[in-house]
Amino acid sequence: MGAGIEPLSEAFQTGGRGGAQPESVPWRLVVVVFDGALLGSMSFACGVFDIAMHYGALPGMDLRIVAGEPGAAILGGGLSCAVPHDLEAVRAADLIVVPNLPQLTAERPPEPVLEAVRAAHARGARVAGLCSGAFVLAAAGLLDGRPATTHWSVAARLAELHPAVRVDASVLYIDDGDVLTAGGGAAGMDLGLHLIRSMLGSADANRVARAMVVPPHRPGGQAQYVEAPVPDPDAADPVAETIAWALERLDSALPVSALARRAHMSRRNYDRRFREITGSAPARWLVHQRVIRAQQLLETSDMPVDEVARRSGFPSAAALRARFRQVAGVTPTAYRETFAHPTEGHGLS
């Protein structure tokens, strides 16, 4: 530990104080941004903590916005705001948050910021990557061998660049103890409320959520409501061909062994290449694609759930409900009530 740096705050080390108010212990939150970061992204990165401080839930918190590269500025609404602090503030942080990057994976993040994040983590700080901020954590080596999430649209790219990371784009956020990741947008606020809940307890977290007029708790395992894209690799790739082939036959049985045979590959090599392309294991990808098909049918038709199950490749309505809740975090009926597009002659009773 560097000279003059106090021990880490107990709440961040232990994960909570059972609702005790942190009246004397400073909690040091650092948000690391890069040049061109959007002003709106700050609301997801630190807005929850700002609101908590405003309402007295975190009176001891020291919040600093730090430049991840020299001359970084935050942009939005015609404004350009210079970032006030440099990487020295990272050395004393208890929690480091990296929101989305303006230039996603265009090049490796600057080595000084990677070194600073690594050193803070080694000292005991918790580190969180929101949206494409997970790429910074991955480049620093903090996600190797760990589960991590990011925005659904860039999950395959994260898996491609960092194959040692166990990418799961189907969830809102993942708390892996000292390293946390969240999907895009409001999932960052969900993670912030989760952290406040772990530090102060549910009562304070719920009060902060009410002040923000947002749901008090969305479990990290709840799905990102997205239509997962299908990567478009080289058309000559035999695994890519089986992906396109399978998508046309989701209502049929599609054992992974049969897909591997179609690609003229061993199961092991097929699984490896499939993960490189999609960021997911084949069986899990198939389940996710079947759920997406079910989502589309629930949104655009009034067919019964058992028919939705059949057309999505599930053996029964019960099997669909179990997998749908597992992937989407809600029941098919609840999803339909939220996302169905009303059309003439189509309504929900």
Kindly describe this structure.
- With 349 residues, the chain is an alpha/beta fold.
- The chain folds into two domains: 203 residues, 3-Layer(aba) Sandwich (Rossmann fold), CATH 3.40.50; 102 residues, Homeodomain-like (Arc Repressor Mutant, subunit A), CATH 1.10.10.
- Helix content is 43%, strand content 13%.
- It contains 14 helices and eleven strands.
- The longest helix has 19 residues.
Calculate Rg over CA atoms.
22 Å
Strand content: 5-15%
Give a quick account of the main beta sheet: strands, pairing sense, barrel closure: 6 strands, mixed
Count of individual helical segments: 14
What is the 3D form?
A: globular
Which architecture name of the largest domain does CATH use?
3-Layer(aba) Sandwich
Ends: how far apart? 62 Å
Q: What name does the CATH topology of the largest domain carry?
A: Rossmann fold
How many domains? The number is: 2
- Quote the average pLDDT: 81
Query: What is the H level of CATH, i.e. the homologous superfamily of the largest domain?
Result: Class I glutamine amidotransferase (GATase) domain
Q: Helicity level, as a percent range?
A: 40-55%
Strand segment tally: 11
**Structure class:** alpha/beta
Q: Which sequence of SSEs, written as H and E, runs from N to C?
A: HEEHEEEEHEHEHEEEHHHHHHHHH
Can you give me a brief rundown of this structure?
The protein has 349 residues and is α/β, with parallel strands linked by helices.
